[in-house]
Amino acid sequence: MLARVIEVLPPKPNRNDPLQIIKSRKHTHGRPATIAGPMVRYSKLPFRQTCRDYNIDIVYTPMMLAREFVRNAQARRSDFSTNETDAPTIIQVGVNNVTDLLRFIEMAAPYVDGVGINCGCPIKEQLREGIGCALIYNEELLVEMVKAVKEKYGDTLRLETKIRIHEKRTPERTLRMCKQLCEVGVDWITVHGRLRTTRSSEPVDLDAIKYIVDGLKEYDVPIVANGDCFTVKDMEHIAEYTGADGVMSARGVLSNPALFAGFDICPWGCVEKFVHYCIEFGGLPFQLVQHHIFCMFENMKVNKNHMKTLMMTKNMFELLDWLDSVFDMRRPDDKEFGERVEIPYVEV
Amino acid sequence: MSQELAGFKDLKISEVSTQNKSSDEVVLKGKSGIPNQSMTKPITVDSNTGEVIVKKFTGKQRIRKGQSLEQYEEQLQHFYDVEKGPTVTPIGWLASNEKFQSSLDTLDLEVKHNRLLLMGFIHRWYYNRDYSLCLKACNEIQQKYKTIKYSEKKMKREIDELKYVMEKCSTFIKNGSN
Lengths: 348, 178
Description:
- The complex is a heterodimer of chains A (348) and B (178).
- Chain A is α/β, with parallel strands linked by helices.
- Chain A has 15 helices and 9 strands.
- Chain A has helices at 18-29, 45-52, 66-69, 73-79, 98-108, 124-128, 139-153, 172-183, 206-215, 232-242, 251-255, 268-281, 286-300, 304-312, 316-326; strands spanning 33-36, 58-65, 81-82, 89-94, 114-119, 159-164, 188-192, 223-226, 246-249.
- Chain A has an 8-stranded parallel beta barrel with strand order 1-2-4-5-6-7-8-9, surrounded by 7 helices.
- The radius of gyration of chain A is 20 Å and the shape is globular.
- By secondary structure, chain B is mainly alpha-helical.
- Chain B has 6 helices and 4 strands; from the N terminus they run H-E-E-E-H-E-H-H-H-H.
- The chains are: A alpha/beta (348), B mainly alpha (178).
- Chain A: Keywords: Flavoprotein, FMN, mRNA processing, NAD, NADP, Nucleotide-binding, Oxidoreductase, tRNA processing.
- Chain A: FMN binds at residues 38-40, 92, 192, 250-251.
């Protein structure tokens, strides 16, 4: 074995401790911690920054494959960009072995506030690699990974696992796995109350989440509930019913990043801010910008002809021209930029 | 154990716990009633390099090559010394004309990522309705494109985009929008 010649940075010092945030929000803010969950392709920097303007405590990056991140500079460049205001951020990793995980953390941890292992992704390509939801059926490996990380970093690194449930209502196997994870030092667990095969159109199983929260009372490990959070009322109901310390929304914030700020419908200002951040940070492929706006417009019930035209724009310039032709889209120097709620159609 | 695995060092096979054997079998063999849902428990071949065996769509096993310590340290060094960590993009980082000029002069525009970076500057000027600066920068990019070898088919979308924005900027300037 070679002697190490590279001095690596330690995990981010003076971080915004996400564990402290999750544990304390009920006492300090009278509500659970609010969390924007990881979404493949979508949770990039402009979207994360938009979420932060609307009462979201913690934001996740999209899942990054550890195998690619530690082997390929191009993958690192396209997967992860950040800046000083991008905090608290949890970087989510898809991984199927201890070595890749430790190396991934060594590279990424100095730039984020915590690392989350994805044990919930049901995409078949990942399952075949033993990544994502496959890990909840491979408890030995998952526990071994958490143990290895916590033995190396202890409390200097926050480590989360985001899991799905094995069975409905009283998922005993899931509870057993969670207890094992707590024993080896996981900092918090996010539970998506669906099975690997449950479609998102089926309601989330809050009883199963509550079963896990109740079953882990003896451990000082907070639980975050994930699934079917689209409004503040949903958040309150989920937290009250399950007893979870935090509530995570993914599809909800995709269509309405302002949901945790009490907006049941995406406010217009949110679109303005998102476009502004896309322009300022750069790097987001045009098709993604277009799809983000489509999701927000769908939530805002913009009429279908406009939606069709939106999807026909071919590049950022056409998109900006179209937005300016249909809506009164303000820039940061304009009065009321990012503040208006109703859609400001241009009067013809 | 299959002969394919013979000779691998540090062989460690994840075992399916007997307690959950029946449900695991259903999951691992994809018998959950939903097609294409079979899962893999990766088999660690070499724990020092992260080499594992996973299952392909066809059911055949596939080796995911490991990364030696030397290869990893090379990446780590590149990450710290060349990449200087992850890309950092604060508000205003695309606002500088000097930065645009130096990027235009130094970046290899045959690399798509570099061309997209330059377009980031143009997007920002266009968004902020700074059409004169935008048009000037587009002209410079267009001149630069003429000096590089590129496949017209591959870059068609980018060239069309450039033409579109130049026409729009000219119209806005003519109409006195800037």
